[in-house]
Every structure is written in structure tokens, then in C-alpha cells.
Amino acid sequence: MNWNEDHKISIALLDLNEGRENQGMRCLREIVKQWAEINNYNVDVKEFDVRVKNEVPGTGFDIYISSGGPGSPLESIGSEWEARYFNWLTEIENWNKSDNFPKKHVFFICHSFQLVCRHYNIGEVGKRKSTSFGVFPIHLMHDGSEEVVFEGLHNPFYAVDSRDFQVIAPKHSRITEMGGRILALEKERPHVPFERAIMAVRFNDYFIGTQFHPEADARGMSMLLQREDRKKTVIENFGQEKWKSMLEHLEDPDKILYTYSHILPNFLNEAVNDLVEA
């Protein structure tokens, strides 16, 4: 039997974009499609509109990726969609803690990452003093350099960051209690008196997340940067030269393209390795 061809891998994409136009879901679809074609996998992908239609997947999928999205990760407290989202999360946790196999791997991106950090109470989730938008260096911690999902990355590596909120002030005892590890921090900013945000966390053996966008590709990011509203935001916050350098970074194969081709494919490979062993 050829496992690649005979086993259908089911992947759930949880869309937290609140029905707004975005590049993130397009990028996720393309990453999964490219990864499946390269590895000759038979993949079935289903999308769930979490914030508009209150949709969440069941436990019948092999792999889950939860997207970024607009707005505050604090304002959804008490909402129906968030309650359903965290119920789904608990169901996956319970599955992984039981004798069920194979285990379910989940990747959380940006808004999803912030929600889950708040849910687990592993740090302080709040508004940034100013919007972070562009291509920035991400610094791996010791545990990050040993993380299989970050295998092959440089330190620092470059990623797309797009957020008005942040997770800071990690609660180390809580993270350790969960079996988690902080993997990466945002760029060093010696000229400002602000704590560096947590940019990636391994929550447990099967849950991992990033506050940056590992799915972002050069084409989509270039389109965003050249949109008048985004261009204005970047220039007002960082200056014309910074905006130009961001566009140049997108052409550098060692920056965004490198991150795009490593993190989520590594995550998918890790999840499939568990499927094959099971």
C-alpha cells in the first residue's frame, strides 16, 4: 500500500477574518495545496467561518490551522463565536489527552494566537502603543532553535507582522505547568522602553502558534504594502525609506519566501509523521 496515495489527510482551516477581504486565507490554501502536491498527498480541506457563521470543526480532522483576523482579541469575550471556538479547543485538548490516536495538531496564527494566550492565561494581552505592520526580524529563543516547526530557519529570521495588539509579560510558571515553551520574541528595540512581545509559543506537544504571519507570501504582502492606506500607515510610522526597504525584503529569497516555505510546511510534516506512525 502507498500511504501517500491511499490515505486522505483531512485539514480544517478556521477562518477568523470576520468576512473581511484578506490575503491570509489565500496563502493558507496555497501552502496546503503546494505541500500536498510536493509530497503526493491526498488532501481534503474544509474551511470554517468562525466569527460570522459561528462555525467550528469537530474532532474528525487530522490537522487544524486557525487564521489571523482583524480587531481586538479582548472584545470578543462573552460572544457566541468565541464560546464555540474555545469549546472546540477543549474538545481537541481532551482528544489529545485521551487514548485516542492519532493526535490532533493545531497551528494558531496572530489573532488566534492572542485568543489562545488569553484563554490559557500565559501572558498579558493588550493594545500596542502603535500598529506593527511590515517585515521584521523574529528572534528565536533557545527552545525555538530546537523546535522542529522552525527547523531550517535563520536566527533571526524575517516574517510579516501585522497587529494592533500584543502578548507580553509571560507567566513562566503557567507556561511550564502546561508543558509549553516560549519560542521567539519580536525584534530588539533598544530605543523604546517597551517590553518585547512574545512571537511564538509551543503550548503543548500538539498546539503551536505565532503572533506573526508565517503564511504570508511576497506577492500578497507586496500588494498590501502598495495599497494607499497601508503605504500611508507604514510611512507615517516608520518613514519612506522603511517602506521601500520592506518592498526590497519581499524580493529577498532569504526573508519572507524562506519563512513561507519552512514554518507551515514543517508543521504539516510533523503532523503527518504522527498520522503515519498511528
Description:
By secondary structure, the chain is α/β, with parallel strands linked by helices. The chain has one domain: Class I glutamine amidotransferase (GATase) domain (Rossmann fold, 3-Layer(aba) Sandwich). It contains 12 helices and 9 strands. The chain has helices spanning 3-6, 24-39, 50-53, 80-97, 111-120, 142-145, 172-178, 218-225, 228-238, 240-250, 256-260, 263-277, and strands at 8-15, 42-49, 63-66, 105-109, 124-140, 157-168, 181-185, 198-202, 207-210. Strands 2-1-3-4-9-8-7-5-6 form a 9-stranded mixed beta sheet, with helices on both faces. Strand 8 and strand 9 form a beta hairpin. Helix 8 runs antiparallel to helix 10 (240-250) and helix 9 crosses helix 10. The radius of gyration is 18 Å and the shape is globular. The protein starts with a helix and ends with a helix.
The end-to-end span amounts to: 15 Å
Uncertain segments: none
Total E-strand runs:
9
Side-by-side strand order of the widest sheet: 2-1-3-4-9-8-7-5-6
- Main β sheet profile: 9 strands, mixed
Find the CATH topology: Rossmann fold
Number of separate domains: 1
CATH class: Alpha Beta
CATH superfamily: Class I glutamine amidotransferase (GATase) domain
Question: Radius of gyration in whole Å, from Cα?
Answer: 18 Å
Average pLDDT figure: 93
Q: Give the second-level CATH assignment, the architecture.
A: 3-Layer(aba) Sandwich
**Shape from CA axes?**
globular
Q: Estimate percent helicity.
A: 40-55%
Q: Find the structural class using helix and strand composition.
A: alpha/beta
Beta-strand content estimate:
15-25%
